[in-house]
């Protein structure tokens, strides 16, 4: 339980909020049910910040990944990687994103970043290959498909 809370805390601390207890309890329940099947498996925890919620239209601003074993021990932490984003793109965000990403400092970091989305993709791809991740559980808040 403590490892799971710490894992969520790493992601949640960036936006200064914590997921509700129901989400954590549900996730723990799933992990416990799968624990017999998780021997030798890895979990890939992903957290993304975007310019909005439409994956077809909005852009990635930041990506963080934590890879754990089936016991939730951290194997590797990648990022957070802040992606270079133009003012023109940032100016198109909705009010919630503008407020949240300005308050957290992410907008400023995106304007100053030299990392392109292609470079971040390459870093994550190389790390997944290095860790020999081919059949792992993708985990995180609102992660699906």
UniProtKB/TrEMBL annotation:
- What InterPro entries does the database record attribute to this sequence? Ribonucl_H, RNaseH-like_sf, RNaseH_sf
User: What Pfam families does the record tag this protein with?
Assistant: RNase_T
Q: Name one GO molecular function term.
A: nucleic acid binding
> What are the TM regions of this chain, as residue ranges?
none
Residues forming the Exonuclease domain are: 44-143
Protein's UniProt name: Exonuclease domain-containing protein
* Organism in which the protein naturally occurs: Oppiella nova
Organism placement in taxonomy: Eukaryota, Metazoa, Ecdysozoa, Arthropoda, Chelicerata
